[in-house]
Amino acid sequence: MKKLSELYNINDDRLIKAIKINSKEILPGDIFVCTMGVTADRHDFIDEAILNGASAIVVSRDVGKKSVPVIKVDDTNLELRKLSAKFYDYPCDSLYMIGVTGTNGKTTVAEIIYQLLGENAAYLGTNGKKYKDNHVSIRNTCPDVDRLYMYFREFLDNGCNTVCMEASSEAFYRHRLDDIKYDMGIVTNITEDHLNIHKTIENYVDCKCQLVRQVKDDGYSILNSSDKYYDKFKKEAKGNVVSYGYKDSDTLKIVDYTLKRDKTIINFKYNDKTYEVISPLLGSFNVDNLAAAILCLLCKDISFEAIIKRVRQIKQIEGRMEILPFVSKYTVILDYAHTTDALNNILTFLDMVKETRIITVTGSAGGRERSKRPGMGKVVLEKSDYVIFTMDDPRFEDPNQIIDDLVSESNRTNYERIVDRKEAIYKALDMAKNKDIVLIAGKGRDDYMAVDDKYLPYCDYDVIKSYYEQ
Length: 470
Known about the structure:
By secondary structure, this protein is an alpha/beta fold. It is built from 16 helices and 25 strands. It folds into 3 domains: 2-78, Udp-n-acetylmuramoylalanyl-d-glutamate--2,6- Diaminopimelate Ligase, Chain: A, domain 1; 91-312, 3-Layer(aba) Sandwich (UDP-N-acetylmuramoyl-L-alanine:D-glutamate ligase); 322-468, Mur ligase, C-terminal domain (Protein-Tyrosine Phosphatase, Chain A), CATH 3.90.190. The protein has an 11-stranded mixed β-sheet, sandwiched between helices. The protein has a 6-stranded mixed β-sheet with strand order 18-19-23-20-21-22, sandwiched between helices. Strands 3-4-5-6 form a 4-stranded parallel β-sheet. β18 (322-323) and β19 (331-335) form a beta hairpin. The protein is globular and about 75 Å long.
């Protein structure tokens, strides 16, 4: 808590307990910052915030006299970042900040690093907020600024010295991360995604580049040399620029690897020496993900020998190629794959190791770029023996129209549509026979279904578990 007079040049010593931008979440003692949202001007909710107990209001336009102090600034969105950093005593200055961006793989890479670094690290991203024995779900991959700095302070106060966070293109587009200087910025890969926000691939890449532009002069930009946009990132990158990939010039070279059903054996070359790493992570895509994470630890002066031991202990990452342990006769895999590239990668691996059939349940989110749907559907139909298309956060779109888009460029008939996702998953599990693989793709461990403007309670994992508890 801080006195209002400590935050602003105002003769008022009332205590401020927290910073909020959602008027419905205001509690007595909070300060309400009237930011400009994507679809809302939060100045419109001042009276509600005061009614809920706001102790002060921060505005960027005249709102008249109110029953609590009103502080006027030029730009409330910019002010939110400054105020949050000040209120929480600039936590980023005391934390080793690692940011991970990319279209696919950022959750996996961030989680691997979090696991490999051990108990003094914290993770923030799609899979929630994690540190020590705490794990809490969060709605956005990268939270709004008021929550973001609160979480950083929470990590610091609980003995964490490092934060490994996913840095999404949308977060950079919304300027949530503008004031963070990163000790490490890691780039996984870039394929077309989120063009509903960025409009062009060039804009999307430029937002991703912002991560490596914000790396400290003595920090590290860790790049994927195999990525199409590697040269662009290298040109923009700050700090020490290092790379991972399959080239002799890479700082960490992937020499070769062997994919097995239960593990991956990889040979890496670093400083002219070759190291064999046995990883519990499956698929060729996880070879690249692991390489990014290992290079991160090497840049932190952790020995390769120590890293090899830690890699063997990596636990399954929730919702990322997650093989559910309570199924025995066949294999059920939960994965967040929701782009053509991600679906192609996972299905290519499953096709290599399958003994009988691959049954896939998937869909595509509404309110996102329609142009990627035909490619997604084509890949899934070609690389699965049977597909059940279903809803996946339809928002304001008709789920049947989304499915029409998914099947529009394929003449294959090895599919059916079941709009209700729970019913679709149950059908796939009913169909599964000995040694089949059932892939449930698209939502991972998300705990909601976005329908219209509501977030309804829903989780693929819970649905699958309920099937076996009938």
